[in-house]
Design a protein that fits this description.
The chain is α+β, with helices and mostly antiparallel strands and 176 residues long. It has one domain (2-175). The chain is 20% helix and 31% strand. The protein is built from 4 helices and 8 strands, in the order H-H-H-E-E-E-E-H-E-E-E-E. It has helices at residues 2-20, 31-35, 56-63, 117-120; strands at 68-74, 78-85, 90-95, 98-104, 130-134, 138-142, 150-157, 162-169. It has an 8-stranded antiparallel β-sheet, with helices on both faces. A hairpin with a 4-residue loop joins strand 2 (78-85) and strand 3. The radius of gyration is 15 Å and the shape is globular.
């Protein structure tokens, strides 16, 4: 139930943060900038692109049986299932039997550099990537690659770069 609450209210919370913190547009972000980790040796935590728009059956083949599946209505119109793994730290949003979003809720996970995020999740940014928001506490990219429509991260602390949530959206049409 806690995750359902977080899943329902997180988009509203994100909008408040992005609008209230002076969202800046930055269309000069290039694929090379986002694909280059300053450290060069970042361990991949999760291969996020491999889950892009797969079926719930394929999801279970990759991840195993979920700890829980919550059924609910997204945006009051889409029958949605959230597949929950890793004690609630990993979630997959499934609409029309297709994974449309991956969410990761890390525990005390820090990064050294923002450019470490994509390699951590196995993401290779495409040429059309655009940074659409960067408040210091939240960063959002659109048109990340041919498999990823949006990448969003929220930090608990901008100084320490402690991750609060990562959301990788594969199909944006449900979120418009």
């Amino acid at each position: 139930m806690r995750k359902l609450f977080i899943t329902l209210l997180m988009p509203a919370f994100i909008l408040v943060i992005l609008s209230g913190c002076g969202t800046s547009q930055n269309t000069s972000t290039t694929a090379a900038e986002t694909n280059n980790s300053k450290e060069g040796n970042v361990d991949m935590l999760f291969d996020a692109p491999s889950f892009s728009r797969i079926s719930s059956k394929e999801l279970e083949e990759k991840m195993g049986k979920p700890e829980d599946v919550e059924e609910w209505k997204f945006n009051d119109k889409y029958d949605t299932k959230t597949y929950i793994y890793d004690s609630g730290n990993v979630e997959f949003m499934v609409i029309d039997d297709t994974v449309v979003r991956f969410s990761y809720y890390p525990v005390d996970q820090k990064i050294k550099d923002i450019n470490d995020l994509f390699p951590m999740f196995g993401i290779q940014a495409g040429e059309n990537i655009k940074k659409v928001a960067d408040t210091g506490m939240a960063v959002k990219y659109h048109t990340v690659s041919d498999k990823i429509g949006e990448f969003y991260t929220l930090f608990d602390s901008s100084e320490e770069k402690t991750l609060s949530v990562i959301k990788v959206t594969y199909d944006l049409r449900y979120f418009e």
